[in-house]
Amino acid sequence: MTLTAQARGTIAELRESVARLHSELTRNELVVWTAGNVSARVPGEDLMVIKPSGVSYDDLTADTMVVTDLHGNLVHGELAPSSDTAAHAYVYRHLPEIGGVVHTHSTYATAWAARGEPIPCVLTMIADEFGGEIPVGPFALIGDDSIGRGLVETLRATRSPAVLMRNHGPFTVGATARDAVKAAVMVEDVARTVHIAHQLGTPAPLSGTDVDRLHARYQNVYGQR
């Protein structure tokens, strides 16, 4: 595949940033051993950068990141891409606004996925980041784009950037890979808090009006603009 100098430069930058973002997964204790992955769409190209399969987080560098097309075919790199590549690629093919995808098996979010139960919107943080309950996606086996199909179907019906794939674990998306990592950190945090709240009683859900107002404020006003 022939790429312009600008595209090659963009890919080099993404390989650096995606490698660094994997350290956020370990720093926030969202992954164990070699499980989990971060990917980023290459803007203007039908390509993505993703973690290689089965490589220790300690060994991840920009050079070990691999580049595939949006059907999961290896374009650049010496290692095999993540076993979740087909799912990431399917999301990028069908949701052009998505620039980053993350998958983890973080403990509390995965526990909700094992139960097949959405995380209810009982916290302002859930309203802020996820815009309502965090939904459950269908069960699908790894190996083809079945997980991707379930993700896209679920994402199209929700404002949430996180989906709890049944009996599997959380996938998160964002306009950038960093946004998707942030959502992965936050979904684990609220999954833990709501689990604890259930041990104490029945948490009260937020009203739909309040959820809408909180979500709009957080997405459009909060932080530096």
TrEMBL record:
The answer to whether the entry has keyword rRNA-binding is no
Q: Please state the Enzyme Commission number of this protein.
A: 5.1.3.4
Q: Do the record's keywords include Amino-acid biosynthesis?
A: no
Phylogenetic placement of the source organism: Bacteria, Bacillati, Actinomycetota, Actinomycetes, Pseudonocardiales
Q: Which family does it belong to?
A: Belongs to the aldolase class II family. AraD/FucA subfamily.
Question: Keyword annotations for this protein?
Answer: Metal-binding, Zinc
Give the transmembrane ranges. Answer: none
Q: What is this protein called?
A: L-ribulose-5-phosphate 4-epimerase
Q: Which reaction does it catalyse?
A: L-ribulose 5-phosphate = D-xylulose 5-phosphate
Look up and give the organism this protein is from: Amycolatopsis albidoflavus
**What top-level class of enzyme does the UniProt entry assign?**
isomerase
Cofactor(s) annotated in UniProt: Zn(2+)
